[in-house]
Write a structure and sequence with these properties.
alpha/beta
Length: 175
């Protein structure tokens, strides 16, 4: 899977805010960006009482709401959760790159967002797929964290400041 990057980190680290800024920047440069949010918990995108919610609640395996400007699909994953490959192949046609939030356990390039005030530990520093860190920690602290997680070559993992959206965009595009 080329051109797929996952932003990972603990809850409250700023992943969504950073991704939002990144998508705005890349879209402004003419790139078609697809975004996928992985949620390890149960979620509901429809509102109770609305027609499409009622169809699903009544037992529809698939419920779709459509208008002239967009559509949304709710499909039951009765047998299994689709892989990231399946999701990209089925829904991300025509995009230049895919940005995901989450998917910390699968084999795609990851950029960890690690915020000091959050106080949480890194979630992907032991991953061979970690390609960068967005943080407000000092670079030497990050290298120490990486060494503690047995990262092969901590100095090969670039660090970006929390506001380095342009530099992260350039880094991703260079990959």
């Amino acid at each position: 899977m080329r051109n797929v990057f996952s932003f990972v980190g603990a809850s409250g680290s700023g992943k969504t805010t950073f991704i939002e800024k990144l998508i705005t920047l890349l879209s402004g440069k003419g790139y078609k960006v697809g975004a996928i949010k992985h949620d390890a918990h149960r979620f509901e995108i429809d509102k109770p009482g609305k027609d499409s919610y009622r169809f699903k609640a009544a037992g529809a395996v698939v419920s779709l709401i459509s208008s002239h400007e967009k559509h949304a699909l709710v499909r039951s994953n009765d047998e299994y959760e689709p892989s990231i490959d399946e999701i990209i192949l089925k829904y991300m046609g025509g995009v230049d790159l895919v940005i995901t939030e989450g998917y910390k356990k699968i084999s795609i390039p990851k950029i960890e967002v690690l915020r000091r005030e959050n106080g949480n530990l890194p979630v992907a520093f032991g991953s061979e797929y970690l390609i960068g860190v967005i943080t407000d920690y000092d670079y030497q602290e990050i290298v120490r964290f990486l060494k503690e997680q047995n990262c092969k070559d901590p100095s090969s993992i670039p660090c970006f400041a929390l506001d380095d959206v342009e530099k992260v965009a350039e880094f991703i595009l260079s990959k």
